[in-house]
Structure formats: structure tokens, C-alpha cells
């Protein structure tokens, strides 16, 4: 467990390690399994609810918010599987993480974490992660990625989802050494006041923090047990077209964006910054292939080109206008089609 120093020091700086139990010994694979609880093929992830301020009280623990791809790593005696948030098997896309999982001193386990690529400052960089995978639809494998692990859902025949987070964290910390430098690392708990931690995270250029209730079981979905508080907001939105321009690079003046409400799409405005000429040319080519005369949201305009809602963009923004549009939006990159579940749900804003 890491304590936040009063002085302005990097949030990821080394500090004294917490006292830990003895490390688990690797099981003998020739011994028979004792599966008290069947190992699930997949567990729907617990998701963090966006809040403007950090909660207070001793029931909350805090971690850094990582900007990458949510993954579950399933370990059993015969194989390792790396599963995306949407349930797709991406073991082949993250070979370093899979290899590191095979070396862990456990027999069976399910790890919950975020695949990231770190920059020189130790901050996660979503664009670098996308590039390591070859961009949206790319076929490259990411050897630079590491898994920042923050939960343990299953261990050696025991389903831990019904246990308190504090117990799950204790077992996870026994499994992963603090301040490790391998492809699977511990996303450490930071002992600090939430508001002060958020202020410090923003000063050193992090995306934000995560708050979790210590004594809650693992519940799938956006229940409010986990909260995310961001320095700058960043969410995924569907691209539903673009505004054509004869003067803008790549012929795109702005991208038209939508969130979701149930099974419907809701227009949230446009974004015209954050992409360069190469990005714009790629986006226009991709969107022209998806061109349709019927908009997926109620829109009309002389220069608007509508597209089937297929491409998902990660957008950084500063807030919302009164009419439900994004303020000061900036394009960060495309997400994979497997991330459909990540498209921003407008009901989180009461819209």
C-alpha cells in the first residue's frame, strides 16, 4: 500500500512496501484439482460510474485510473486466455501478458485489469497502445503492453466474486509483488484523501483516479460500487458521419458523434480537433465505405455525410453543454469493434 507524500512527488515513485504474507507456492500440476467452485468461462466486468468529485469516508479505497483496454486473464493448468471486455479472446494480441500469466505461482485464477502502454513518465498512453496493436482493425501483437491488475475474481478452485474487495486485494497483493517490472503488475492502492489524490494526479498529468468500496462483493455492471473521477473527461462515442470540408485536411471538417440510450443513439455534437491529415484521410475513406442516406440520429445539413454506426472514437472533452453536447472535444483515436459495450451511456448523465 502506498502513502501519498505531502510534497509534490511523482505518484508512481517508489516507497516502502506493505507487509505481505508469504508468497504462494506453485501447485504441483500432477496433483488432482479440488474445484470447490467451477471456474467460470467469463465474468461480466464491474464498471466504474463517472462522478465529478471523489467520495469521502473510510469505506473507500483509491487507485490510479489507467487508460487502456480492460482485460480478464484466465489461468488454468492447461492454458491461459486473455479476454476483452466484450468477451473476445485476444490472447494472441497480448503475448507478453499471456506469457507472464503462465509464470505466476497459481494453479487457477482470473485476474481483472487494464492493458496499457506506459510512457517515459510511467503514465498510460491510449494512443501508444493503439499503435502497438496496429490501429483499429490492426493485426499486430502488442509486445509493449503490460497488465495493471486491480482485482482477483477466482483463485485455486474458489470463486471470489462474493468476497469483499479488501479480501480480494489481499490475495492479489500476495500473488503480485509491489513495484514489479514484468508484464503483469499490481495497480496499487493509494492511501490518501480522495480530493487531494485527484488534485495530485491531475498535477502530474494522470487521467484521474478510481474509488472502490472496500467491503463490497464484485458485482457486474455499473453499480456505483466503483467510481471514476477524471482530470479531463474521456469517453467512447459512435461516429455517425462527418461534416465535409473543401479546406480541412483529409476533407473532414468534423466528426459527428453519438452516445447510446438503451438501444437508441443520441447525438452529442461533433469534434474537429485531435486528428492530423493522415488520420482524417483514413477516417474519410473508412466512413465513405459506410456511407448511408439515412442518418442514425436526427440530423440534417448541407455538408453532412452520414455513415452506418460502426466506428467508435475515444474522445477527450471538458464537459457538457445544456443541450447535451460535448464541450471542447478532442479526438484521441479509434477503439476496436469489440469495444461496442464501451460507447457512452447517456443514462449516466440522466439524459
UniProtKB/TrEMBL annotation:
Domain of life: Bacteria
Signal peptide: none
Protein keywords: Ligase
GO BP terms in the entry: DNA recombination; DNA repair
Domain spans labelled ATP-dependent DNA ligase family profile: 138-262
EC number(s) from the headed UniProt entry: 6.5.1.1
Catalytic activity as recorded in UniProt: ATP + (deoxyribonucleotide)n-3'-hydroxyl + 5'-phospho-(deoxyribonucleotide)m = (deoxyribonucleotide)n+m + AMP + diphosphate
Record Pfam families: DNA_ligase_A_C, DNA_ligase_A_M
UniProt-recorded Gene Ontology molecular function terms: ATP binding; DNA ligase (ATP) activity
EC category: ligase
SUPFAM superfamilies tied to this protein: DNA ligase/mRNA capping enzyme, catalytic domain (SSF56091), Nucleic acid-binding proteins (SSF50249)
InterPro entries in the record: ATP-dep_DNA_ligase, DNA_ligase_ATP-dep_C, DNA_ligase_ATP-dep_cent, LigD_ligase_dom, NA-bd_OB-fold
Family the entry assigns: Belongs to the ATP-dependent DNA ligase family.
Listed name of the protein: DNA ligase (ATP)
